Amino acid sequence: MVQKYESPVRIYKYPFELVMAAYERRFPTCPQMPIVLDCEIIDDAETDNGAKRETKRRCKLAVDAPYLFKKIIGIDVAYFIQTNFLDLKTRTLNIEAINETFSSRIEIFEKCRYYAHPENPDWTCFDQVATLDIKNFFGFEHSMEKMGMKQYSQTTQKGKEIIEYFINELKKEGISHVDRWKEDETTEPAATATTTVSISSEKPPLTRDNSILDADYIATYLGQLSPLQESKLVQFRKKIEETNHEGKVPDYQTLLRFLRARDFSIEKAASMLQESLQWREEHRIDDILGEYKTPVVVEKYFPGGWHHHDKDGRPLYILRLGNMDVKGLLKSVGEDELLKLTLHICEEGLKLMKEATKLFGKPIWNWCLLVDLDGLSMRHLWRPGVKALLRIIETVEKNYPETMGRVLIVRAPRVFPVLWTIVSAFIDENTRSKFLFFGGPDCLHIEDGLEHYIPTEKIPSFLGGSCIPTISTVGEAVPSKLYTRCFLSACHCTMIHEGGLIPKHLYKSESVEEHNGVPHGHEHHGLYKSVDLKPGQMFELVIKNTDPKSVLTWDIDVLKNDILFALYRTDKDLEQSFNDSFSSVFDNADMKEGVHYTRLEEKVRCKPKEGVQGSHEMATAGTYVLQWMCPPSCDGPAQLMYFHEILSSANYKGSMTSLQSGFSSNSLQSR
């Protein structure tokens, strides 16, 4: 197995010659690297009138491994051969190191480079590449790989610290400048004592085609990264550069987001990014901020807008979903236009994150979404609306990974778990972990309330805060540019539309194509399971709950004939049965209703082409049973599709009231 590590560029704000003087001080040993026991010069030669020097050292290193491991392999120290190629004319030092110990079983090759900064000759750059090739190591290949990663991380982190330490030592000795090598000199540059240091006080404008990734840039724009993550980022950029010969290479923030989304797998991230870049080109996404024209209906009725920042500096977007007329929006602007609106918001978010980074002086690489669900009802579960929402989620997940830092769901009503059941399975697991739910009308005066995440003075008045946003009344249009202007000026008002029902005369057509039979996503995502039942036959789903106050939610679609649905609970430990049964698990266990088990919801009769959604707070641990039955009186078999999910109590904040099953037929009107 071969592992490659590559560090970003480190920048020393000192001339190359002074850095070299400091570098020489680290031999044969230095206190910052106790692992290096000794370095013996075995060859040293100068050429070109002293301008070039080749030095070979044999370095003795302590094996940083558990005692038992060292006993098994039979060594306490390892030897490396390091060769330095110094060129004072070009102001470069190239270093190569390779292991001598166990060289037939494992090959460690490291290449480092010091060189004058290409845009500021008074600064010095450093980069580092290492490969680890483990051929055969007594069955401990994985352990050696881990130790190699650890050693690389340690040396990368210590390298700059060591140079800085010895430069300070030189300064204490009165040496703060070293003359450059000149053609007519016959001796190597000498260190001189002077207080004058030719160092620029300002960082040069690096060519922000991102050709140089330095430590300062990482700290300012990317945040804390491990040496291995930095290495992956550098390699990822090079891979994208190699494949995008003519195309534009995204900035490091974008590259890092795609890497994080694929757990720093370069191959997976590259595949995801290439697909996204092609999608952006096909749909002209790079031009959307300048070319997008907000439809009048959206300006008048879309209840969302940017609203200051959260406590971590993330741009905050507020969406009053409960006030949104989903059917009216779809019928008036269409699904494609609603998707385009979402993409415009996402592009605004990317721009605002960069501006927030400059404003707060720290990396802001995602934004915060607050969703107010006050007013959410079964009409929001209209099938084409859910279909459009799932399409939007899928598109955003693919092309804007890791842009969502936190999602605050507030004033979640009883119907919300039903919508969450349908939608959550389409959301990336990592994104889902960022959701926080606040049930009940009060999301402030509870433990871990909104004030923990949003500055008190920025919490909107409609959520109980003191900030009074400019609320656009129903039907009042406001220029879309006002959103950004209010956001950037940090004024006391931001624009958030109130929403409301869209008049039918604004509809483009009188109907939106209804989904026939199977809910959107069933065919592609395999979320729903199909069950066929003969008259009198039943199917029961046994759920063992060990998380009190978690929420069980379900979504059922009846495709053929009537179905009876009920929910039960028992303290007994029941097992799931997949047999074609005409009897209940309670019958098999010889249990009596009201004694050994309880019916939590009366039987609901569901007819063909009806959808049934519901939720139940599982207040206590125990066994819960979802039961479907084809009535014996049916003239033929019944067919249904179902999906269920458990919303963890840890992810739900506030009270939860169980919702009895509600109907949402495929032709259900939203009003």
From TrEMBL:
Boundaries of every PRELI/MSF1 domain copy:
2-175
Query: Where is this protein primarily located?
Result: mitochondrion
Which terms are listed as keywords in the entry?
A: Mitochondrion
Q: Which SUPFAM superfamilies match?
A: CRAL/TRIO domain, CRAL/TRIO N-terminal domain, Supernatant protein factor (SPF), C-terminal domain
Subcellular localization: Mitochondrion
Q: Does the keyword Mitochondrion apply?
A: yes
The record, for Pfam families, names:
CRAL_TRIO, CRAL_TRIO_N, PRELI
Q: Where is the CRAL-TRIO domain?
A: 294-471
Q: Spell out the GO cellular component terms annotated for this protein, sorted alphabetically and separated by semicolons.
A: mitochondrion
Question: Which named protein is this?
Answer: Protein real-time
> Which organism is this protein's natural source?
Aedes aegypti (Yellowfever mosquito)
